[in-house]
Amino acid sequence: ELVHGFKNNNNANNRNSRIGIKNAANKSQTHFIMSKRKAPSSENNPNHDFCDFLTELANYERNVNRNIYKYNAYRKAASSLAAHKTRVTSGKDARKLEGVGEKVAEKIDEYLKTGHLKKLDKIRENGTNDSINLLTRVSGIGPVKAKELVDAGITTLADLKKNSDKLTHHQLIGLKYFEDFEKRIPREEISQIETVIRDSVLEMDPKHLLTVCGSYRVMQAWTTQQWRRRYAYHSSRLHVQ
Asked: Is the residue at 80 inside a domain?
């Protein structure tokens, strides 16, 4: 709402966003508002290919197997590799990084030797898996809903548009702006959004401190899917991430 409210200059949306922040502060507890994220990777990263296949495995575990434990493990390993500034040359080398265990190290060795992973090859052979992963990229559609849609023969974005009556308002918005949500948010736009939020926070209490975290702090562009907002109120400080 903060993003859409600001971009559309909609006073009602902006007002609702401010209320949301104020309520979080008044409850004196941590609130999380999260959206789906893309891979913690970039082609400028020397380990981006490892990050890519780990993220693909993570999405499979979450969306198809619904195994959150493995999903988090793959994501953590991918994040560590994305933050590593030099090329990993072996699984043993990767094991030195936080979150990279024996299984992930073995997959890195396999990829370095063959250029692919047998597990991913099998996953990709199943069109159902690809369809579920695609549909879960639409904001508002989770693994359960995606499986339900695929079972009903809805496997592409075009199919979704033909069956819009099966979607909620949130999912319809996610479908309508799918391409926009896949694009990167310019740093300048995030700075403008920060200004809107900061004004609202300081209006509540000038003693509040606000920080935009994530890749914004390290001069990287965000995708809409990566946009995460955390509202945490503790010891007279409101922290927005």
From this structure: yes
